[in-house]
Design a protein that fits this description.
The protein has 16 helices and 22 strands. The protein starts with a strand and ends with a strand. Among the domains are: about 270 residues, Metal-dependent hydrolases (TIM Barrel, Alpha-Beta Barrel), CATH 3.20.20.140; about 100 residues, no CATH class. It is of the alpha/beta class and about 650 residues long.
Length: about 650
């Protein structure tokens, strides 16, 4: 695929959503990172060869001031800085990203006094952003299969009417769920709930006074309003499935509400694979919808499974985004959003875990699910960097917080996750394969009231989780120092053994003060000995971490009884099926990209332009020729695509 015309440059310096599939991305890295990395879809700047760390460590920490100078393989906004650095000041703001040699001399004093974190094989990434989760349901174990374990559903109201998944708003349960996310590098979440501290809760109404929204207000900057909407057209107890007639929806014409006052509107839409699921999208985007333009640049649709090429064009042309939860989709419907098609059309994609009932326990498992689908069923449409963008920059753009988080850029928050890239040819793989035992450090910028009544606002970097030796060498926060004077035993960080690896976890740094300033409630109603009572309160909850595959983890394999089972048949047999969609290659209009016949498709594989090439693998799904238009999702620029060389 060749881009003929690009009317404006993307924020990341190239049209990320429309790049062709890349081959091998990296050469092998030496212990001291002295062999230059080669990345097909990102520029690598070699800064310096960092010395190997002390035996048994990924990062060596040299104590200094509360500012941080972090060195390693830095995944910057537009470049990878091999042996580069990120300089974070004492308030937790990023001041510089790049090579030490290119740093402005005015920052040399800050860098010289900062605490040094040097990681020759460490992968330095923005903190991950989970763009869709239901935290108040995440104490649940995976949902048991229906009476027939081969069942998959056609619409969300098929399973909602028979399921009874409990919700729990208690702070010990929600904090447990946030910790599970943080232990793989997640620092922000749109979770439909939340608790003070641990990760930044982005949704409307979720403890704004305990997060960086407080800092925004004091700085005179209005907070970003992100409004989730589970049932935009129907009531929570409405299980009808409407086809063709929007007036049957209780809330049609759409009751504008959150869609008009929110900065980012995040509704569940088209959750299923039948005509009724697609009709929900059609009605929300209808011109008869009370004059409310829902599908605009403020919208980030959750799930969006039942979409066709016209729907994708609507999203791309109007700048709406999509939040993809592949594991939950596969477990419930045996299929997921047509992401290969949406990427080609120019729809910005992000990843969200949904919930533990049918989805992934954390973003690491969700990335692995997306990676498995990409490698096995999507003909490697997405690069490793694409998957990384789905949990960093893309969700920040989709939720309209990219002016604060989502990339390592000077002026943004110092939300940083350090992954162990030892022995990996591709640094992005360190993020995709993240688990609690191989996370090195998770740092988040935090703004907290002082534990002293009338005291100053504390703003700075807070270490949430990481390797025990590295955590022990980091400077204490103001709350660590003041805790003994408030009668709180220290240390505020607890030791925890994760799969044989000594780690340290510190959520108490952000919570113990709450009950001490007259706020009317205590930190999660627990004693100051944090982890033990939290363990007790979550004795029946789903696990905080697993050393092997999570217990009873929902499937990520496409499956619908009697239609397909995700099996790849690559022999010379006439029934060869290289994409596992149940349609033999000779009859398949996308031989290498999974595109089964859905109930909404009228008995045939989707092919909007009737050119014999399925929408899932067609560079131009709405135009029969080899040239068509698409959209750069970052800038809205129109580009022309030439598919003759695909």
């Amino acid at each position: 695929m060749k881009i003929l015309l690009q009317k404006a440059n993307s924020t990341f310096g190239s049209l990320l959503v429309l790049v062709a599939t890349m081959g091998a991305m990296f050469t092998t890295e030496s212990v001291a990172n002295d062999k230059k990395l080669k990345v097909a879809d990102a520029k690598v700047v070699f800064c310096e060869a960092l010395p190997a760390p002390t035996t048994g460590r990924v990062c060596d920490v040299t104590p200094g001031s509360p500012a941080l100078l972090i060195k390693g393989n830095v995944l910057g906004a537009t470049k990878i800085f091999q042996g580069g650095e990120v300089l974070v000041d004492q308030t937790g703001l990023i001041r510089y990203v790049g090579c030490s040699a290119d740093r402005d001399a005015a920052l040399d004093g800050l860098a010289a006094s900062a605490t040094g974190i040097e990681c020759a094989n460490g992968v330095i990434s923005p903190g991950l952003i989970n763009s869709h989760e239901h935290l108040t349901f995440d104490q649940n174990h995976p949902m048991p299969p229906s009476a027939n374990p081969n069942d998959r559903y056609d619409h969300r109201n098929d399973w909602r009417v028979i399921s009874n998944i409990p919700q729990d708003f208690s702070q010990p349960r929600v904090t447990w769920s946030e910790l599970r996310q943080a232990m793989v590098g997640t620092t922000s979440i749109a979770g439909g709930g939340g608790s003070p501290g641990v990760v930044r809760n982005l949704d409307l109404g979720n403890y704004p006074l305990f997060d960086d929204l407080l800092w925004n207000v004091l700085a005179g900057e209005p907070p970003t309003v992100i409004a989730s909407d589970t049932f935009p057209l129907e009531a929570g107890n409405d299980f009808t499935q409407n086809v063709g007639d929007c007036s049957n929806y209780p809330d049609f014409p759409f009751l504008a509400g959150a869609a008009t006052f929110a900065d980012a509107y995040v509704p569940h839409v088209a959750e299923g694979i039948n005509a009724a699921a697609q009709n929900e999208f059609a009605c929300l985007s209808s011109t008869d919808n009370n004059g409310v333009d829902v599908m605009n640049r403020d919208a980030a649709l959750i799930h969006g499974i039942a979409l066709d090429a016209d729907d994708g064009n609507t999203l791309a042309s109007q700048g709406a985004k999509l939040i993809w939860s592949p594991r939950s989709n596969m477990a419930l419907y045996g299929n997921t959003a047509p992401v290969t098609m949406l990427k080609k059309q120019g729809v910005l994609l992000s990843l969200g875990t949904d919930w533990t009932a049918t989805g992934s326990m954390h973003l690491g498992r969700e990335m692995l699910c997306a990676d498995e689908l990409n490698q096995t069923y999507y003909d490697t449409t997405f690069s490793n960097r694409d998957l990384w963008l789905m949990v960093t920059y893309n969700p920040a753009v989709s939720l309209q917080v990219d002016n604060k988080i989502g990339s390592l850029t000077a002026g943004l928050f110092g939300d940083i996750a350090i992954f162990d890239g030892t022995g990996m040819e591709d640094p992005f793989r360190a993020v995709i394969e993240a688990n609690a035992d191989n996370m090195v450090l998770v740092l988040r910028r935090s703004a907290l009231p002082s534990p002293l009544v009338g005291g100053p606002l504390y703003v700075g970097s807070v270490a949430i989780y990481g390797d025990a030796l590295a955590m022990q060498s980091l400077p204490p926060t103001f709350h660590d120092i003041i805790a003994p004077g408030r009668g709180v035993p220290v240390p505020l960080c607890e030791s925890i053994n994760v799969c044989g690896v000594p780690k340290s976890i510190c959520p108490l740094r952000e919570t113990w003060w709450v009950g001490g300033v007259g706020a009317g409630f205590s930190p999660m109603s627990l004693s100051y000995d944090f982890l033990n009572p939290l363990d007790t309160a979550n004795a029946s909850s789903y696990g905080l971490f697993f050393c092997d595959d999570p217990i009873d983890e929902p499937t990520c394999v496409p499956f619908r009884s009697g239609e397909y089972d995700g099996t790849i048949v690559s022999s010379n047999d006439p029934v060869k099926d290289r994409d596992g969609d149940g349609i033999p290659d000779p009859a398949d209009n996308c031989k290498k990209v999974f595109n089964p016949i859905r109930p909404m498709d009228g008995g045939v594989q989707a092919d909007a332009d009737s050119d014999g090439q399925g929408d899932a693998c067609d560079d131009c799904p709405l135009e029969a020729g080899e040239t068509c238009s698409a959209v750069d999702p970052y800038t809205g620029a129109v580009v022309t695509i030439d598919s003759s060389n695909s």
